[in-house]
Amino acid sequence: MTAIAYAESMPAVLNLPSFEIPDDTRQYVLAICKMLADPTRLRIAYYLTNEAELNVTQLCERVAQSQPAVSHHLAMMRSSGIVDHRRAGRQIFYSLRGDAMRQTLARLFGVDA
After folding, report:
1. DSSP label at 43?
2. Tens digit of pLDDT for each residue in 30-86?
3. The CATH number fitting domain 23-109, selected from 1.10.3720.10, 3.40.50.10310, 1.10.10.10, 2.40.30.60
4. Whole-model pTM?
5. Chain-centroid distance, C-alpha 107
6. Which of 53, 60, 71, 75 could make an SS bond with 95 (beta carbons 3.0 to 4.6 A apart)?
7. CB of 108 within 8 A of CB of 61?
8. Which DSSP string corresponds to 89-110?
């Protein structure tokens, strides 16, 4: 078959896969990137990447900020899907939400997950 015959046998419009990011995925990734753009939240994510979980007091010590400030950052990170929490008595422990989040952040920080 000649190149011209081959070209004429091809449909005018090819059904190529779309390389656009789906809207929901784009919004999720943007929300995470915006959360991690803040230096304190980035440091919190780093510490949680290296520990299974940390309580608010431990995070306050690591980032050298007050409990209300750290709690505010954690609430924002929780609402964007970066962290989960559990309560044990009066303590609240935070961890990264899911293995995929831990692996993604570990790769960004260059640490073992």
Report:
1. H
2. 999 999 999 999 999 999 999 999 999 999 999 999 999 999 999 999 999 999 999
3. 1.10.10.10
4. 0.79
5. 11
6. 53
7. no
8. TTEEEEEESHHHHHHHHHHHHT
